[in-house]
Amino acid sequence: MSVPPSDPRFDRAAASDDALLNAHEAAVGPQSNDRAHYPLRPLILLFVTSGFILFAATYLNRYAGQYDPTVFNENAAPSRGSEQAVKIDPVAMGKRLFNSGGACFTCHQPTGMGIPGVYPPLAGSEWAQGSPDRVIRILLAGLGGPITVEGKTFSTAQMPSFGASGFNWSDDKISQVLTYVRQEWGNKAGPITAEQVAAVRAVAGDHKTWTADELLQVK
Q: ∠ CA 134-136-137 to the nearest 5 degrees?
């Protein structure tokens, strides 16, 4: 059986190479020649990302606590550095003790002037500004009987013990309140240390209430 020469299938098969190339280009469309240039958007994104990574690495290296997991543990006890002792102002602490409930200010008053005829003053007192060993003994064991302060006699004065038999204050507390008394209200005596209080406590032992005559024997 013969095929008519006008069959279009034979026309397609007989297409030349140029015709095929032209048909291909027409199907694909025109192609731009970018001459090997890259789009800027990916490059910008690459540089921004790299800069962020560099910044993050630098920040972590500086503030990550050397990557120690215990650095930011809120429940952990301090383990780095040495403890710094808090420096306490003995005069400020002595004033606080002096004015604490039931302590010195009750009788001697916040002004240090005492109560005329009953409790002797501390302001200007030769006893408060005198021998540290005497005034320490007064605070440790208390004072009873008459005592003369600035030429005035107080016959019923009773000083309670702030030592073991009374308020049971520590050596630090006694030294602080005495330092305050000796430097307040115009008094100009030197401070008293906890070591001085401890030394007198060791010598005086459990001595009971002192009298003025006994204290005058102490130098």
A: 65
Q: Rounded to an integer, what distance in angstroms lies between the CA atom of residue 69 and that of residue 75?
A: 12
pTM for the whole structure:
0.62
Interatomic CA distance for residues 160 and 140, integer angstroms: 9
| Distance of alpha carbon 7 from alpha carbon 217, whole angstroms | 149
pLDDT at 23: 72
Give the phi and the psi of residue 178 in degrees, each rounded to 5: -70, -40
E strand residue ranges, the chain? 143-144, 147-149, 152-154, 158-159
Asked if 98 contacts 106 with a C-beta cutoff of 8 angstroms, the reply is: no
pLDDT digits over 43-62, tens only? 788 888 998 898 888 887 77
- Provide the token pair at 156: 């019923």
| Euclidean distance between CA atoms 200 and 103, whole angstroms | 21
Buried/exposed code over 44-83 (b: 16+ C-beta within 10 A; e: otherwise): eeeeeeeeeeeeeeeeeeeeeeeeeeeeeeeeeeeeeeee
- Name the packing angle between helices 132-141 and 171-183 (round to 10°): 120
